[in-house]
């Protein structure tokens, strides 16, 4: 009985081996067809990916200055749950309006807690000579456009004009935090 079972298995194997086809490997096409995607489809945007509290894409701040600014923001968030991001950029991509870019970047990064909308973003471009404070919907009830503009014109911009970018942002952050209670 075992011999018959072995013969059946052996015959089955021989039958399958003789019916196998050899598959030839094809050489890759040296001129593959080009596939084109538009930037929206790929999920690309004009916005850089957030790195943390300080997003210095223009390399304005020293590592020590970034740490100091981060500590100010972290301490404030710990006490209040309000979120702040500082962003430096060289370009606004396809945008033509810096203020629109700043608002859209803040929305895209979702600065502030979802259910509180308590975020604030400072977007600065040394190259473009522009700065904007963008607030979340709840934040703007406390830090109104008038307050933000006054802090920009009285505290931040005078320092920026002197080339003191870190001092301008630190003074501005301190003043915003003082008013955001």
From TrEMBL:
Entry-linked InterPro entries: TPM_dom
Origin species: Lutibacter oricola
The name this protein goes by in its record: TPM domain-containing protein
Domain TPM span(s) in chain numbering: 54-178
Pfam families listed in its UniProt record: TPM_phosphatase
Transmembrane portions of the chain: none
């Amino acid at each position: 009985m075992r011999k018959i079972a072995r013969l059946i298995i052996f015959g089955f194997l021989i039958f399958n081996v003789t019916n196998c086809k050899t598959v030839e490997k094809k050489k890759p096409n040296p001129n593959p067809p080009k596939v084109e995607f538009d930037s929206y489809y790929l999920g690309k945007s004009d916005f850089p990916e957030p790195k943390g509290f300080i997003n210095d894409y223009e390399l304005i701040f020293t590592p020590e200055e970034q740490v100091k600014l981060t500590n100010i923001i972290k301490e404030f968030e710990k006490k209040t749950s309000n979120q702040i991001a500082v962003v430096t950029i060289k370009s606004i991509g396809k945008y033509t309006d810096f203020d629109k870019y700043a608002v859209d970047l803040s929305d895209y990064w979702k600065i502030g807690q979802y259910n509180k909308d308590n975020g604030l973003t400072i977007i600065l471009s040394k190259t473009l000579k522009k700065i904007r404070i963008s607030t979340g919907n709840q934040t703007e009830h406390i830090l109104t456009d008038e307050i933000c503009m006054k802090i920009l014109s009285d505290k931040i911009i005078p320092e920026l004009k002197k080339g003191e970018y870190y001092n301008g942002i630190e003074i501005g952050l301190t003043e915003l935090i003082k008013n955001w209670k």
